[in-house]
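ok so i was messing around last nite and threw this chain in just to see what happens. nothing serious, just curious
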Amino acid sequence: NSEPAEPIVSELVTALLNGCRDADYRTQILCGQCLGELGAIDIGRLELISKSPDVLLTNFHPSINDENFAFGLINVVVKAFLAATEPRVQ
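result:
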């Protein structure tokens, strides 16, 4: 029984989740990165806004079989690996 998150947080997460479904691949990646920057959020505290409640969460996860998903994931992992300043962090 936790207190609901501020409405602006719910609106922000909703907008970013919707952006992850955008037709433009770069938009998807940028929205995903923004969600990553937000960190762990208790989804139970959010009031997600969607015209169709089932659509928002069921369509959020891209297919791991999608070539664009794999390509984007590899790019993010490689950039993080190369950005590490210490070999131990890699």
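not much to say yet. The longest helix spans residues 67-83.
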